[in-house]
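Q: Got a minute? One more chain.
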Amino acid sequence: MQTRDGVADNISWISEKFPNCVTEKIDAATGEVKLAVDFDMLRQELSSEIVEGKDERYQFVWPDKKKAILLANAPINATLRPCEEESEDFANTQNLYIEGDNLDVLKCLKETYLGKIKMIYIDPPYNTGSDLLYNDSFGDSYEDYIEFSGQYDELGNRLVPNLESNGRFHTSWLNMIYPRLRVSRDLLKDDGVIFISIGEGEIENITKCADEVFGESNRIGIVPRVMKSGGGKGFFFSPNIDYIIIYAKNINSVTSFREPISEDIINRLYTSIETTGDRKGERYRPFGLYQSSLDSRPNQRYYIEAPDGSLIIPPGNAMPEENKDGAFVIPKSNEDKVWRWSRERYLEEKAKGNIEFKKSDGVLIDSNGKPAKWNVYTKIWLSDRQEEGMTPVNFITKYENRHSAKELKELDIPFDFAKPVGLIAFLMQLLSFNKEEIILDYFSGSATTAHAVMQLNAQDNGKRRFIMVQLPEETDKKSEAYKAGYKNICEIGKERIRRAGKKIKSESPLTTQDLDVGFRVLKLDSTNMEDVYYAPAEVKQEQLNLFADNVKPDRTGEDLLFQSMLDLGATLDSKIEKIEVNGKVVYNVAEGYLVACFDKEVSDDVVKAIAQMQPQYAVLRDSSLADDSTATNFEQIFKTFSPTTTCKIL
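A: Always. Here it is, folded:
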C-alpha cells in the first residue's frame, strides 16, 4: 500500500552488478542498519581513473538538483480513488482520466504500468514568466517529502507563478520537470517514445535534462513546429514556432518513422472499402496475386477456388493433377508461372477474408486449361501500409494553433493554448505500432491527446487507450471557462472528451459503433490506510484502541479495490465484475486475476467461494473476517481449494 522506494530499487540493482560497492550503515534517524552505496568504490569500478573533486568534466547541474533526484525516488503513501459518477461507461471503457499532482500519479502508476506505455506526449509549461509551476517540496529528507506529498502550501496553493523576476527562474522549472521525466521513463516500453512540446525559453535546458534522463544516444530529434503564420508581437522577431523534442527509451528498438500516406495516394489507390467483417469500413486496394516473375517454386503453384466453384492457376506448361482448393500443382519447367504467396500464406490469408475475386482479363487459366473467368487479388489494407508513407522532414508546418481554436469552438469548449488534434494524431502515426497501445499525457490540459486517440481510432479501426493526468487547477474567475461553469481544468478536459466522443461517433455512425469514447475517472488522494499500517512501531500501547481497523473510516470497498489493483499489477482499466456471495460483495478483477471482498462479517462460506474461483491474488480486510474461527480456517481453505493463490490481508 505504498509506492516503491526508488533508492532502494537502485541500490538493489547496484548490488547485483557491483556487490562490492554496497555496504551497511547506521541510519541516523532510526538507528537501524540499512544498505548504502560505497560511491568511492563504485567510481573505481566505472573508471580507470577516479572522477571526483574539482576535476573539470562535462556536466549539467543546477541548484537543488540532488533534491530533485531524491524527489523522483522518494516513495509516497497515496492512492487513486475511483469516481464512477464523473466517469463515462465506467464498467466497459479502457481509458483513464486521473485528477491529481502528476508526479504523485506517475509514482502510483509506476508499479502497475512499468514498461507498458508505448507513447508519452506532454505539453508542460513553457516558462514564459507567467506560467504556473508545481510547488514541489524540497525538504532535507524523504520524511519531509512524504509529509508534504499530496498536500498544499499554507495558502492552499499547489501551483505557484514562476515570474521572470524570480532569481530561481530556470532552477524552479528544472526542479519541476526533472523528477517527472525520471519517473515517466520507467513507464515506457523498451520501444516506447516520448514527445515533449516546448518553447524556446527552456529548449536548451529540457534537452540537457532529457539527455541525462533518457541518454543522449536515445535522442531522436528536435523538431520545430509552426504555431502560427505571419507576423505579430515581438521586438526583434515575431515568435511563431515552438519545438517538439523526441526521445526513445531504447532507440535500437524503435522502428523508423513514417508519415501517414498522402491523400493523393489514398484517393488514387485505396479506393475499395470493406463492407463486412472485423475490418468493416476500412480502406484497401486490390493487388493481383498472379506472380509474373519466372521461377520454379512448387509451394507457390496451387489451385484457387473461384466463386463459381471453378479452379484457377497461373498459366504454364503443367496441367492440373488434383482438383481442390489449395492443392499443389508441380511446375514442369521454369516457364511455369506461380502465385506471389506460398500455399500456406494463401490459406492463412483466405481464412482472414483477404482474398478478392474480380472478372477476368484472360491472364489466368482454369482447371481445363482455358482462360479463367476470374482474376484473384489480395487486399492491401491502408492501415497496414504505413511504410508507404515518406520519412517525415524535421519541420512541422501543417498543424497550427488556429486549428485547435477551431476544434474547441466546434465543441463549444472555452480553453486557450491547446495543441491541435491533428498534431498529436500525426505523432502517433509516426510510430509503427499495433493499434492497441497505451498513450499517456500527464500535462493533459483540455485533453487534446484523448481527443486525438479517439479520432485516430475512428479512422483506422484502432483500439488505442489513453491515460490523461491533470491537476484540478482552478480556472480564472474572469475567464470564459469559469463563466461557462467550469471551475477547474479537469472539468474542461472531461467535458471535451464527452463532446468529442459524441461528435466522432455521429460523423461516422456505421464504423464507430464499437469505438471506446468513455473514461474511468480516478482521483489522487492520501492512502486508504491509517498511519499505524505504515509505522506500527510509532503507535503507543495506550493508543491501540484507536486503531481497531487500519483502514480509514471514509474509504469504500471500491477505494480499497483500486489500491489493491495498483499494488498487485492489475491495470486500472481491467474489467471488474461484482458478485454477491451470501450477501457480501465480491469483486472479480480481470477474470480471476484478483478477487477481493472488503465487507464486514465475512464467513467461511464466502472465503471458500473466493478460493474456489482460484484467483491469482485474493484480498480481504483484517476486520472483514467474521470471527477468530474464520481467521484460523482462512489459510487452510485456500490450501485446500486454491494452493497457488497469493493471499493478502489489509
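A: The domain at 58-260+390-523 is CATH 3.40.50.150 (Rossmann fold).
Q: Perfect, thanks.
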